[in-house]
Request: fold
Amino acid sequence: MNESRQRVVIVPCSGIGKTYGSVSREAAYEVTEDLRPDTAALVPLSLLVLGDEQARAAVAGSQAITIDGCKLACATKMVKESGGEVAKDYAVLDVYRRYKQFKPQGIAELNAGGQQLAQALAQEIAQDVDGLVGQDAAPYMAPLPHEGGQHG
Amino acid sequence: MPEFLETTVDKFTFKVATDRFYTREGVWATPLPEGEGAGVRVRVGLSDFLQQRSGDIAFAEVKPEGTALAAGDEVAAIETIKVNIALGSPVNGKVIEVNPDMELKPEVINQDPYEAGWLATIEATDWETDRAQLLDPQAYFVVMKAEAEEEAKKL
Reply:
């Protein structure tokens, strides 16, 4: 990895067993694996909660986009707690209000509406990523945890 | 500002405003100060317990102004992150006003269910008769608390 390249970290909700949490993670995977793999990277919220040093360093050294599954806004809070800058925070419920036609259902496996909502959200985030890396965001981006690893 | 009856079940605290009446399902009704016209204007909304149990509200669709309703007819449908609920009107009458916040920020129901989160105003055709069918705050409090405790057992 080129560590000097600007990257935006995406921190989705870690709510397991929650439909909106699943939407947040699907959107994050879509952005970091398919839409903007070179300029966006996923940092699992669970690692931040556990105090993983590499995860905290990644967040602290980058601009972050958070995706919260509920109003507790754990992702946004933990990024701030970890010293990161939240460039944009999304709440899945607000996104759904903009895409009423995509009603998310399901937990372990999202229904078609949930997948479409995640894709719509991912497209919005991808645009945000483009805007952020186009700016003079951070001159140095810390190594991201579990680079190239599995979903967290 | 209304006064409240309040109970805490598990980690959740529920309030029941004492200045209005309730259906068993948790829809409140309160007459507004006398205005012009023959009917009594009754404002309706969700109880604190109902909104908390239902979860964060994504959409609220209230019957439009002019809709005639019998008590129990659907006055609004809400979609939350958990469920879709049809809310029955607590009174007979006609919808004369819809809370404009329901269109763009229905989350106000979660934030302030007894004040800013009202759903609609209904011109009741016979408020006194309707009121006799509703629960007073103390009676609803008992019903609500029993439901909350039952829900807590499932957690």
